[in-house]
Amino acid sequence: MRYTGRNKRIAAAAAMGALTVLLATGCSLSIGDVDKKNEATASEATTAAEEQPTAEEKPASDGPAEPENTGVSEEGAVHKARVAQTIADKLAADTGKRPDRVTCPEHLPARVGATIRCELTAGSDTLGVTVTATSVNGKRVNYNFKVDDSVQ
């Protein structure tokens, strides 16, 4: 069978359609440690607050742990790069296809009900993503995200 440009376009369109349907489902996830600084130490912020997340997830322990790069800023927010990476990872796990790019313009505040908008690019399609913090329990932030139903 000869592969023509038309066959490739049909296959790409079918894959994008399936990805769009799967992206339209809401997802929920949880991100680890949130360190909230008090006013006395807020001026001592270091570049660690802007560290990029690691690809590995380490299980949370019940006891005190050494500081680690969790992708969470010291001001009590989930780092924007961590949110974007988690969205891409979750969608890849759920759909079998990783979006080309996910970007979030700001950190997600570790406050129940806090919402940010991110942007997802898959092929030539760009979709908005709404991320909402659903709970904050100690050093754990739970949040979910929903991909918009229509292309921007």
Brief summary of the model shown:
The protein has a domain at 27-44 and 69-152. It has helices at residues 5-23, 39-42, 80-95, and strands at residues 27-31, 72-73, 77-78, 101-103, 108-109, 115-122, 125-137, 140-147. A hairpin with a 2-residue loop joins strand 7 (125-137) and strand 8.
What is the element layout, followed by pairings?
Layout: H1 5-23, E1 27-31, H2 39-42, E2 72-73, E3 77-78, H3 80-95, E4 101-103, E5 108-109, E6 115-122, E7 125-137, E8 140-147
3D structure, described in words:
The protein starts with a helix and ends in a 5-residue tail after the last strand. It contains 3 helices and 8 strands. It has 152 residues and is of the alpha+beta class. The strands form 2 sheets. Strands 1-8-7-6-4 form a 5-stranded antiparallel sheet. About 31% of the residues have low confidence. The chain has a domain of 102 residues. Strand 6 and strand 7 form a beta hairpin. The relative contact order is 0.21.
Strand order of the largest sheet: 1-8-7-6-4
Give the N-terminus to C-terminus distance in angstroms.
37 Å
> Percentage of helical residues?
25-40%
Proportion of strand residues: 25-35%
Features:
5-stranded antiparallel β-sheet, 3 helices, 3-stranded antiparallel β-sheet
